[in-house]
């Protein structure tokens, strides 16, 4: 074997042993960013090790050095979402603190609205994942709410907030429309339904104001919490 052949063989072996292009730049943060882009584009159901790897231009196997499969991807994204919530310091007034926590979560979630359902479906154990839970429980307990009631109210608050966020980003005609032409068309459809209560409510049912709907949901949830705490202390 001449020197040129040996050199070519050595180069071929080196190439075969080299990780795919981009693998050396892989990190958990890069994988989370890529997963978010997949979710933003195609939704949570599009997430897989292959879809994220394809976005990064690497072999799917290389992701396992940083995350534990698809569940690991979704957990990492949820932790990233919750860990970035800027929770304000409590004031001791639930009428201020609960809306403030809700606003902080909404502002964070609307950066990647398709991720909102993950908050309800992922069971996290990390500090980042549990910090918003700690904040909500903290303000409820400080207000004198019993622990059992605090847990139930925290779940109601989270479910209400997530539901409102999903309605913001995924609202269909049944929940109202935001553009004026669509509102007029939807109102006409509702008024032609032959259903008396639907006809009566048609001007409201046809319209969807994201900010107003959100504020109403937060105020209603806060009022419920205050009422339940008052009842528990009676």
Automatic annotation (TrEMBL):
Statement: the UniProt record of this protein carries the keyword Transcription regulation: yes
Keywords: DNA-binding, Transcription, Transcription regulation
Residue ranges annotated for the HTH tetR-type domain, each copy included: 25-85
Entries under InterPro entries matching the protein: Homeodomain-like_sf, HTH-type_TetR-like_transc_reg, HTH_TetR, Repressor_TetR_C, Tet_transcr_reg_TetR-rel_C_sf
Top-level taxon: Bacteria
GO BP terms: negative regulation of DNA-templated transcription
DNA-binding as UniProt keyword: yes
Region (Disordered): 1-27
Molecular function terms from GO: DNA-binding transcription factor activity; transcription cis-regulatory region binding
DNA-binding region: 48-67
PANTHER family (alphabetical): HTH-TYPE TRANSCRIPTIONAL REGULATOR RUTR, TRANSCRIPTIONAL REGULATORY PROTEIN
Name of the molecule in the record: TetR/AcrR family transcriptional regulator
Protein source organism: Streptomyces benahoarensis
Native organism taxonomy: Bacteria, Bacillati, Actinomycetota, Actinomycetes, Kitasatosporales
């Amino acid at each position: 074997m001449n020197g040129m052949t040996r050199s070519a063989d050595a180069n071929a072996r080196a190439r075969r042993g080299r990780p795919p292009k981009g693998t050396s730049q892989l990190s958990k943060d890069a994988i989370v960013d890529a997963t978010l882009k997949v979710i933003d584009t195609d939704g949570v159901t599009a997430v897989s090790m292959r879809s994220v790897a394809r976005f990064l231009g690497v072999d799917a196997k290389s992701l396992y050095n940083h995350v534990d499969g698809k569940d690991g991807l979704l957990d990492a994204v949820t932790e990233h979402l919750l860990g970035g919530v800027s929770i304000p310091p409590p004031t001791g007034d639930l009428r201020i603190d609960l809306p403030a926590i809700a606003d902080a979560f909404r502002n964070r979630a609307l950066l990647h609205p398709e991720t909102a359902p993950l908050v309800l479906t992922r069971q996290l154990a990390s500090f980042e994942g549990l910090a918003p839970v700690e904040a909500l429980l903290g303000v409820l307990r400080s207000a004198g709410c019993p622990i059992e009631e605090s847990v139930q109210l925290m779940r109601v608050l989270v479910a209400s907030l997530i539901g409102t966020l999903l309605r913001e980003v995924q609202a269909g005609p049944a929940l109202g429309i935001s553009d004026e032409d669509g509102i007029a068309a939807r109102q006409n459809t509702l008024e032609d339904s032959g259903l008396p209560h639907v006809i009566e409510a048609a001007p409201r049912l046809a319209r969807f104001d994201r900010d107003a709907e959100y504020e109403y949901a937060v105020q209603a949830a806060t009022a419920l919490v205050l009422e339940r705490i008052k009842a528990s202390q009676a």
